[in-house]
């Protein structure tokens, strides 16, 4: 992707995307993974999960995450890189994430990795992910 033409706009949009990522992360912590992934998804969003399974549509994404025990799951992440399209309507981010899942005995399993999210600006000017 080519970055925005205007440097001021580019910096402003980078801040918007970064803040959207951090608000998304905060909602996952406060309201659960399923609700956060539902709220920040575009209607036709797609997520790729284990064994290259594609979950298509925000309602299906919520259903997928509700199968995970939200009360025993936490996730944190921070974008290391943000790139915005020249017209300012699309962006992508990537960075590191950490999932923590507590089992019935109270043991916590940690899963680390790299995420990649594609964002699309909506008609209401909010950012929703279309790919994660």
Tell me the major beta sheet. 6 strands, mixed
CATH overall fold name? Nuclear Transport Factor 2, Chain: A
pLDDT < 50 stretches:
none
Mean pLDDT comes to 91
Structural class by SSE content: alpha+beta
Distance between the termini: 17 Å
Enumerate the strands of the largest sheet in spatial order, edge to edge or round the barrel. 2-1-6-5-4-3
3D structure, described in words:
The protein has a 6-stranded mixed β-sheet with strand order 2-1-6-5-4-3. The mean pLDDT is 91. Strand 3 and strand 4 form a beta hairpin. 23% of the residues are buried. It has one domain: Roll (Nuclear Transport Factor 2, Chain: A), CATH 3.10.450. Helix content is 31%, strand content 43%. The chain is an alpha+beta fold. It contains 3 helices and 6 strands.
Descriptive tags:
single chain, alpha+beta, globular, six-stranded mixed sheet, Nuclear Transport Factor 2, Chain: A, 132 residues
């Amino acid at each position: 992707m080519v970055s925005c033409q205007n440097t001021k706009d580019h910096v402003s949009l980078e801040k918007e995307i970064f803040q959207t990522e951090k608000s998304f992360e905060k909602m996952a912590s406060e309201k659960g993974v399923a609700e956060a992934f539902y709220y920040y998804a575009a209607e036709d969003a797609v997520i790729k999960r284990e064994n290259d399974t594609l979950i298509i549509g925000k309602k299906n994404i919520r259903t997928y995450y509700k199968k995970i025990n939200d009360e025993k799951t936490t996730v944190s992440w921070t974008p290391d890189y943000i790139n915005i399209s020249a017209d300012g309507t699309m962006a992508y981010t990537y960075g590191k994430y950490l999932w923590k899942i507590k089992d019935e005995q109270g043991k916590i399993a940690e899963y680390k990795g790299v995420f990649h999210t594609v964002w699309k600006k909506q008609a209401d000017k909010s950012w929703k992910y279309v790919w994660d």
